[in-house]
Design a protein that fits this description.
With 211 residues, the protein is of the alpha+beta class. It has helices spanning 8-19, 24-31, 35-48, 71-75, 82-95, 98-120, 125-138, 162-167, 170-183; strands spanning 22-23, 51-56, 64-69, 142-148, 151-157, 187-191, 200-205. A four-stranded antiparallel β-sheet has the order 4-5-7-6, covered by helices on one side. The chain has a three-stranded antiparallel β-sheet with strand order 1-3-2. A hairpin with an 8-residue loop joins strand 6 (187-191) and strand 7 (200-205).
């Protein structure tokens, strides 16, 4: 999810981050808009799983819902730490022994792949690819998905780990493995921008590993 915190939905997220759980009435007052407008903005946030509702029952008055950020919502505010995380990983790549480095990258790819897979649920492969493409685009990386016989071809015109992968091609293997785990299908990196190609190309088998 690409979030613009200046827009109404983003303002709601920021309020929940700063003040904690809030009711529609409290959000209405803070934003200076109607309750209907607040609910319209809350609906997609609830659907995306970045906000959750809890029913509060008080001694007086009717039960009402309060809204809070989920862990997924909290993660939207942690993106400022990405540069630090990449810098730390770069230092590890420079210092680690080859065997240790391989184990580390495998653990990272497994973790990333499992996180993506959990977000994608039980969707069909084509839908998983669409969601992965949306995630890349939300992070500023344009891409496309084509079909070639029994293979999907995912092309990414950019790399979220460009600075690292340029000097450590093992990172390309890590990304390929993470995509494979996320999609639940065999994935191979067929072209890389570091070999002079325009973007990186991943070939995704339509045939499940169990087939």
């Amino acid at each position: 999810m690409g979030t613009d915190f200046a827009k109404p939905a983003g303002q709601i997220l920021r309020l929940l981050q700063e003040r904690g759980p809030l009711s529609v009435k409290e959000l209405e007052t803070a934003l200076g808009v109607t309750g209907t407008a607040v609910r319209q903005q809350l609906a997609p946030l609830l659907a995306e799983g970045v906000v959750a509702a809890t029913v509060v029952r008080e001694r007086r008055g009717r039960p009402h819902a309060v809204y809070r950020l989920t862990e997924k919502g909290q993660a939207l505010f942690a993106r400022g730490c990405e540069d630090l995380a990449l810098a730390l990983l770069e230092e590890v790549l420079a210092l680690a022994e080859p065997q240790t480095l391989q184990q580390l990258l495998h653990r990272v790819s497994t973790r990333l792949g499992q996180q993506f897979a959990a977000q994608m649920g039980g969707a069909e492969l084509a839908e998983r690819l669409r969601r992965l493409l949306a995630w890349l685009e939300a992070h500023g990386i344009a891409g496309k998905v084509d079909e070639e016989g029994d293979t999907f071809v995912l092309t990414a015109y950019g790399c979220p780990y460009y600075g690292l992968a340029r000097g450590h091609r093992e990172v390309c293997e890590m990304e390929t493995e993470a995509i494979q785990l996320a999609l639940g299908s065999a994935v191979t990196l067929s072209r890389s921008q570091f070999d002079g190609h325009h973007g990186c190309q991943f070939r995704v088998s339509k045939v499940s590993p169990e087939a």
